[in-house]
Sequence to fold (684 residues):
Amino acid sequence: MMAAIEKAAEGKPTINDVARISGVSKKTVSRVINRSPLLNEATREKVEAVIADLGYVPNPQARALALRRNFLIGLIHDNPNAQMVLGVQEGILETIRDTEFALVVRPVDRHSPTLLEDVRGFLDQQRLYGVMVLPPISESDALAAVCREAGCNYVRMGSARLDTEAHLVESNDRAAVAEAVAYLIGLGHRRIGFVAGPEGFRSARERELGFRDAMETAGIDIAPGTVGQGNYTFASGHAAAQRLLEARPTAIFASNDEMAAGVLHAARERGMEVPHDLSILGFDDTAIAAHIWPPLTTVRWPIVSMGRAAARKLIHPETAEREPALFRSELIRRASVAPARE
Amino acid sequence: MMAAIEKAAEGKPTINDVARISGVSKKTVSRVINRSPLLNEATREKVEAVIADLGYVPNPQARALALRRNFLIGLIHDNPNAQMVLGVQEGILETIRDTEFALVVRPVDRHSPTLLEDVRGFLDQQRLYGVMVLPPISESDALAAVCREAGCNYVRMGSARLDTEAHLVESNDRAAVAEAVAYLIGLGHRRIGFVAGPEGFRSARERELGFRDAMETAGIDIAPGTVGQGNYTFASGHAAAQRLLEARPTAIFASNDEMAAGVLHAARERGMEVPHDLSILGFDDTAIAAHIWPPLTTVRWPIVSMGRAAARKLIHPETAEREPALFRSELIRRASVAPARE
DNA sequence: GCTTTGTTGGAAACCGGTGTCAATCCTGCC
DNA sequence: GGCAGGATTGACACCGGTTTCCAACAAAGC
Fold:
């Protein structure tokens, strides 16, 4: 091609270079870039050839200024769990790779009194294309309202219905937990302990409901002292288990893996063998699940897929309604569960 | 103030609003924003009052276009370890909070043949203010060259000197490992196994050198079959330990926590008790270290502090040379180490 | 032949800041 | 009082796209 000859000596090519070389106007190039429908196919191809030849990429800063909108996807999270955050990041990246989008992350503090103003300022400033909110702060309707008011497209991730279809990516935690507990019951367990997540978290409530569903379905009464509560941390799981074990359950379901690891510690401290003396089930399937001993039977939360789906919803808002948004959490059987002893 | 009255009806205030209301030119407002020194103090105060009154914030997109530089800090990583990546993100965020900067993350694949072009495209596109590269890809001089060529300020994080002071945030892994191994020796261990990290990683080499330093200082020969190699994964640590344990060491140092967890699994499978039959030491102090049983004695890698330091270097390039860049990794004593049996 | 429809171009304004360079205002100094 | 010279300030082009408005021109329909 002769383009290389005509191309300006230095620097990145601009829209003017493309227009001059392909012999059309700046405006037409802009139409090609923005996929305007009122455009002759032959012209489009000609311009696209020049663009490819020159390696032209529109300047994102200029577009952002003119369009009043940045090609950035935001990720707002409260770092509940490193594995989860990185999993979502990975899913988003897979989706936006080879697009013009980039990922901006914004950790926030759920307990900060200025949380909402912080987020509003962030959205106002960055003029993001869209923003994704991770649990547990995705459960805040006030935060969702801020996104709406800022005119920013958003998606909330969660384990229960939080919003309309267009703004939601969810997983069926309740059913998944019920299934996992039914599996324990099928192995002969009757005294099953449960470590709930923190108050006020929808994910915690959903998981507990799943547990109660399964017990009720099987017609088993929940024994006194076999339900405890933690706040999704290792230490809280450990503390809850110390109390729960007094009630002599044969199995304990913890609402996340980290607490399950805490339960395991508590059992060890009492000289119990897992899974022989106690079966343990977790939720999330983070790295820790496979790396503790015995490897933890747990429910895999399909976080990477959810990240991908959320990114697609943000990038293509027009199809967001139709995009499936419900993901199945599935039971991963490892070695921390055994049949109940007679 | 009467400013509220004069302010345009809708939307965010612009630099023109500020200029009009404070009775100066647009350019003077720009000088105030950019802290230009050639500016009358009285004028500055007047304009600043109007800015505060209006709640004016300069539009980042417009500034990015005019300055040909975005107020974004990039983080390039190869996801070796979720805890580490999030730790750095946390450190960066702490530093840029309350500034105009935002954080863009860019996961990459070390093994991709297009890695360098990917990164170059990313830098060219986003025109970042600065970029931070995490290990292990921070060890790539080719990648650093790409940053330089793109005219992008960069900082490389690592466990050994990789670059000049301005571009480096490092930790003293070699000395820290030597110290940890000396601790084992002080407890009477003589047959000490070592699981090295993957070939070609500077961090792996540094840690191994630290091990050999300590053994040599103590005048202990490294017994045959007590040094293995892994690739920083759980599975590789497990496999390496299976071979190492044939040589009957009384302690094993693994070059990271994940491999240490693998070593622990291997020991369990042989019916060994930790730490009674085998002491285990790790490196990094990720969440897994505290959550396995027994809690892992390990070397804490000060990742959050390093992230903070790196962000400061990027935001204030002029003082980057003077900013201290060497961080101390320190031994965290938990329960996976015991004195050697007689 | 005339109108309609579809496609493209041109000029100019705009998005909201920053750079250049000249104009203006104070000083002190002779 | 007049002037050199530094300290301040403003006019205007520019960053690289998009948008508006309208004109031009071809092919198609009546």
In short: Residues 117 and 151 of chain A are 15 Å apart (CA to CA). Residues 24-28, 31, 38-40, 43, 62, 64-68 of chain A lie near DNA strand C (CB under 10 Å from a C1').
